[in-house]
Structures
1.
Amino acid sequence: MQFISDPPTESEALDAYSQAVTSVAERLAPSVASVKVSRRVRGGRRLDGGGSAVVITPDGFLLTSAHVVARTDGSGRAAFTDGHEAEFEVIGSDPLSDLAVLRLDSNGLTAARLGDAEHLRVGQLVVAIGSPLGFGGSVTAGVVSALGRSLPVPAGRLVENVIQTDAALNPGNSGGALADAAAHVVGINTAVAGQGLGLAVPIDEATRKIVGALMTEGRFRRAYIGIAGGSRPLPPRVASRLGRSTAIEVVEVVDGSPAQNAGLRPEDLIVEVDSIVVEQVNDLQRLMAGELIGRSATLQVIRGGRSISVEIVPAELEVG
């Protein structure tokens, strides 16, 4: 007996999930490069390493992870899926957000479209494209496993609102794209936190400001007041009066810092900065933008159950 059947059409061969993933791969793969760098190590030797990067402008700007290009001589080589290769220069790096911007001497590149991670939802499809273990143009897919995670970086700070995904990531994916089903880049893959657990720095308003500063100035400036602290519940009477439950407790004041000069003390509770409510340390970190450097700011502080105003002039945070 002979069975006769027509071959399946493309739409029949691919289910909706597969169509979404293949569409993202086709649209975004030309915008993701494999990057190779040489690192300086002890004894004067050099160690080859690499990662991935995402084209963000047609005239040669690429976005990657700061740790991919850390401790290098500021240059390297990028390779694309179509075989094109070019030398790049690191024009700006921000270890505190784990982001860096590269510049290729190339025009007519295919720039990725940047999305907005603030619209992501847990369970949403995401696609990762990068160069795990040096295999350029590799595609994996998964979902947004969680939002709002924090990622410690070597510079001694937390990157906030990190995206957690179960899309498979491996060494070399760092600096590559995490995209939604519309092929908008919503994150820059940055870490493999465990089996089935990857993390990406979100593309949002704060990230765009950092990237813009790296492209134009080569760095992103942050303000610094010089305290160590943590979130603490407000005393019941104060909480009732203010209509909120938590504040930032000053645990330690750094010698010679703006905080010491302003008279802040351990056990002070910071509740506002220039009339903006702060309840967590990351609230304060977000407000420490370059615009505050050298400018007087007003802290609303609870000290001994009383509310006082403290004038402080933040300095520039120096990143070693």
2.
Amino acid sequence: MYSTQLQARSSAIGRLFFIDNLRTALIILVVLHHVALIYGAFAPFYYVEPPFNSAFLIFGLLNQGWFMGALFLLSGYFTPSSFDRKGPGPFLKYKLLRLGIPLIVFYFVLNPVSSISTWYMPTELTGITTPLTWQAYPSLLGMGPMWFVAMLLTFDFGYVGWRMLTRNRTADSTGKSSPPSYLQIGIFILVLAAVSYLMRVVIPIGKYVLDFPTLAYLPQYLSFFMVGAVAYRGNWFRTLPVSMGWAGFAAAVMAGTVLFPLAFGGHFSGDGHWRSAVYALWDSTFAVGICVAGIVFFRRFLHRQGRFGRFLSQYSYTVYIIHIPIVVFLGVAFKGIALEPLLKFFVVAVIAVPACFVAAYLIRKIPGTSRIL
């Protein structure tokens, strides 16, 4: 069923270094996003430090509009080839090892460790008046940013179910299909915006559900994962026209400069208000446009990897898993330093990003960890 022809096709396509580089850039952006949370407090976080700068709110909303969806898109792209090589059983075993174990470690170890930083915040922000003891441990458990891994694992199970339900017919694709047309992309954006708008009537932006902080974006996450899987079969990432990349960038700029300010109001999170509909149209347009532009840009200008690029790519997943305790305790370490929030963000970010990669390198030196991380 999982023929050598499929494996030969995967080898012939070769590794897309520009996608590796794009994924690395996205994970670095995740780290910067969480550093910005310390000094912007635009969403709940382990440690925040007043005075808060409102510029970080714009930075955070722009990021939230697309970057996790982009990670799901890239994850979806590599899912079919992994399934084709392994088959359903080994594929799920691999995913449980690579995603499930880090999720458990973060939930029971790294999240509680990171949550200790809350005790370093002013009491008027936390309401905490009792000292930290082991009795607090159960309340410190949580997924944190590993919600992405938990959701991705769910999508992977769904993909296996789909392949088994369709009796693997999708594996017979030759990989020779044209990229989507402008009309198809436009329809996708409108449908995604409509579904997102309806989703946010039930689950507004910012509402936690089952420890998932951004379930309001589920339509984007799921659809981007599915598009990624389809894009692999059609080899779209290699064949998207350069002109479409420019069009995507123009659409993203238009959405960011026209729709985003129009939507930015007290009702954008989602309650059926017209601003919520505009906001859904903004982030759907922005997400699709910037993803198309990013793929084309990285393919054109960042399509190779030297030793440094390979290093960043190799350790970026580990960085995603471990970066939270590093970021929050760097924030705590700089607590007593009197700097403007924007300057302090810059200083902490410049230290945090390389520190995360160094830590990832050292962790992967531990025997057995490279199989998982």
